[in-house]
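User: Predict Peptide ABC transporter substrate-binding protein's structure from this.
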Amino acid sequence: MKIPFRFMLAAVIISLVLSACSNAASNEDNEKKEQEKTKEQVLIFGRGADSYSMDPQNANEIETWRVSKNVYETLVEYEKETTNVIPKLAKDWEVSEDGKTWKFNLQEGIKFHDGTDFNAEAVVYNFERMMDPSHPARHDATFSVYRGMFNGFKGDGSVIEEVNMVDPHTVEFKLSEPQANFLSNLGMHAFGIISPAALKKYGADIHENAVGTGPFKLESWIPNDSVTLVKNVEYWKENSPQLDKLIYKVIPDNTSRLTALKNGEIDIMVSLNPSDLKSLENDNSYQLLLRPALNVGYLSINNQKEPLNNIKVRQAINHAIDKKGIADAFFYGLAEPVKNMLPSESWAYNHEIEDYEYNLDKAKSLLAEAGYPNGFELEFAVTSNSRIYMQQPTKMVEAMKASLEKIGVNVKIVSYEWAAYIDQLRNGEHSIGLIGWVGDNGDPDNFLYSMLSKNNAVKGAAQNHTFYVNDEVSDLLMKAKSVMDEQERTEIYKQVQKLVHEDAPSVPLVEVKEPVVTADYVKGYIPHPTGAENMDEVTLED
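Assistant:
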């Protein structure tokens, strides 16, 4: 049968209309998807160096902890702007009258990222991994922070004698003696709790993987490029985190990092060149923030190498360094010279010590007394990666080289990328190097015991990068750990600083307020004194 033309035309029109409607609907769907995509909260954090490891327990540097802070959680943590202790995975705790038994009641219903339960058994497994050299999940890890904070390992002086499960949601720590800063120590980034199932699954490769209870999960790690974290949609805290994705992007050069911020390639950057501050002060597109000065930058002098094992040589180096000149030239009013291995705002700082003055004639005289009237050759190690306490580190070292050469010390500068540099210092392979310490918990023990005790001068795991050994100093530092009275502890620490100043194992340089810059649409970001902060409440606003 022949179909009338008018019906054919009508069919074509209907088809076109339906097609148009379909296309319109499709376009609307695409627009909605695009809008949803643009609404995705993705924050890119620009930093100067890569993480050393994904295992926080086996690290002792801030780039690892900057990431792990948002993947792993500790029993207790610090307030957002201070080092005051507050609950985290433990909801509350109690301590015995003698200070040697601590009982923690744990949060319930929390899952690790792999779906396994967080409970007392997991806490026990993690601490036994750190404290027991024979633990099967230990592998080749050194756990230098555990050793430093808790005086050694099981059977080798560890103040933690036992960690026991009382019930599925209660864990008990038995100490050999009271420890004044025990609670503060537990809040340190190095004691994040790892999934026991993950430790068993990945074995020695846990350093490349990350399975915690935190607000973000590890999606990928491209070494020396980026770490990508994604939102933990099953996170135990309601309405947290706000971000869908958190990317830590490595941009070694400070100036290049600032350019990336200005180009919209990153949203936050740390380690801004202080000289760039003025260029941003009146620009409302950015927020300028300052991280409190809970840090000390210093020259690590290897006390085990000749001629640096000579006290007069070390004193000469101290006299040859112009601390104020360095503070002024590289930190633009954000740094102050220090004379001790402790921030000046610490309640234990010894202000009565008279610093080594910048005096090249005195330095030359001391070298002559030490038997080096014509100086000597010295290899000066440095990393190109900036830190709070060392902005433009290569240029800082070049300035110090110029001073040292004026007293006859012929300096050769050797540069390393960050991870290799840390290994140099931990293994005692350097002669002298520029480094620093950012406080982990606000307690003076964290600075003085970590950097000056002979117990931390263990090659391969050293936090005492000078390998300074003074039995009296080490004994006093051990004594201070168990003294509960703050005034008595203060007097001990002042005596320690006096002895250390005389021995000159290092050159304390500066304490620094770190400038951090964010785009104006970043809300809720607060730089923490310890250098690593929770990002769970950070948002991006239109």
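The radius of gyration is 27 Å.
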